[in-house]
């Protein structure tokens, strides 16, 4: 008994002693400008074998505090921020509390010689930047940038290619900080291979002036910067695909990239008839980069070629240039049924249209940037030239509320056009020793378009005394849209965190529209008689001067701006119609107000924006000149219009916690139209709509978005969860049959997407979204209209056995309220198998689009004045066989396209030893 008690007391004493010997190790981490760094990784490791003892992260104040037992052996501490760098320090032991004080990180990296640190954190946060580690996400071999983006938590890409990150729209994509065939990123999405990407950085979009001056962003949109792997910046990469399938479907493309340090030269070429707008890789691209896309309206053949060059000549001078050529040919067969809403009845229009169009476009662009000391200059000129031709054969019938035919139209239109455009931007930033700076920017745009429209139509009226409208005309339309703007402002610091700016912005716009219509003479077989009723000319010259003053606040947690000024408008409107001249000059002085405030504390970001927006009515809205181009829709201007005036408020909250890998973003936008220009229309007994314009007060729109993402990892298994909720509510007022109507439009769209990766062999990604919309009408014969659209999809990628990739994409779509004769639901199943050989330098495969042959393009649109159901031609089932080759050589070594196929993307993180 005594021995047992002795043993118990001894154990209690040992536990008590250990508890008493807990040591505190604390410190604070900041960057070179003394800004606290949040979510910096703090790791304590055993120096003998590099094993980790414990770890933590810094809090919102950049501080950390570790509690651990005494250490009687050498150990090290690693302070790691993925952007600011790594700090390391060794100790012989730890026997008492230790305060490391303030640790200042810089982009230079320090490492212990005895320790090799491997960091592969999927997502990290640095101030306003979310950084994704590309190697942490599983994509199929030879996937492009778009496929990789779709795997990232918080990222969503719709069928039109619009990218949102945590609910914020992306409007710029850069490669290593430079444009790739322009900043819109469409070509990069389709063409940049995922396996050469190191990091994807998402930050608030900045204007050129904000980038130069270092000011914080005021935009509610995002920018993406793609960082390439360092070992992929010395060498070349060539990839090509040829494919042929059923119904003579085809695709052919080539992509070549040459890298030498900061110099990058890229060539792309593509030709296909499977509705792909960019490089349709053999790895799978149906439609716009995604196998599940239903394709655009009609059947499209497209070809393109592009050349892009970027280079940093020296430490100060960077140049870039690009050329693009695009050709497309589209055929479509459209059927539309539209219910037109009136205060006391509904009339229906049904139409059939067969159309063909062909477009040729050339675009040249270049960028030059000089950045030395306190002087920064940016110059971006571009030129475009395009030609197009189209034919349109149509017939339509309109029936009244009793089902009686009131009018019928049929005929054909042929159009040929040519346009030339020039755009240029010059931005200058000059800093001074007192930390003040001067910004100046000039933008110019010239657009000239010439069109010849061959019109041969007949409009017949029934149960009416009105004469039928028969036209055989040639319409020659010349339009010019030129503009120039200049912005000059000076910013002076009046305190450490407060700046004052004063400036003036000038804008000049010139618009010209010359429409000459000629009647066909059957005797001379030519168009020689000018028709004054259908010919018209108008032009607009607008000068706008906007002086302003601005306060800028920049604290550690708070930042904001307040800008106040005035807009002085002087708009001269001139028109000539049926031998009469029309002159109207509009002069207005309107307030100009902008404000934004941002708060950042740790992972929490909160921003508020306010804008007061104004604009004048256009010349066609102001001048009382009739537009009789469409015999069933006639417009005339109103010279008594007031300007558009609106208030816009937006609120955004975001939080991403790296430790829990959980993110949330919520934003709310409210726009109130103090004065808006709307249609004032009247429909007569022949169902001809005559419209002018008027002002109303009280139209508004509310938009709210909520997005939540979560990432779970367990061993080699990964689960990404994305949940979104989009909603809107709007009031739209206008006049129909001289009566004011009101339509309240509301919609809600919840969505959920899961991505599960099992041991890097199979990826499953189910998703579901629902869109419910409802419109309530007042002063209409219709009280309300609702519609529900369901979409479910399931995507799977299997990479077993070795060298074989099997991809399936299955979706179900249901539209609850399609009109009779329109299919309400359909299934879409696409499948692809690719096999790689010759050390991954060759691939052969087969893909099947729309296996069930159910793809369709039935759509419903509900607006404040009509309900429209449409059916278009669309890409349907085909089978295609393809062969892809990949020739890569980086750093003097040749490799296959998928460098990590034997060791798939997304292996775990950890610390290893350099050898003991």
Automatic annotation (TrEMBL):
Source organism, top-level taxon: Bacteria
Residue span(s) of domain Outer membrane protein beta-barrel: 433-758
InterPro entries the UniProt entry points to: CarboxyPept-like_regulatory, OMP_b-brl_3
Signal peptide: 1-19
Biased composition (Polar residues): 385-400, 409-422
Keyword annotations: Signal
Residue span of region Disordered: 385-422, 894-916
Pfam family, one: OMP_b-brl_3
Full protein name: Outer membrane beta-barrel protein
Lineage: Bacteria, Pseudomonadati, Bacteroidota, Flavobacteriia, Flavobacteriales
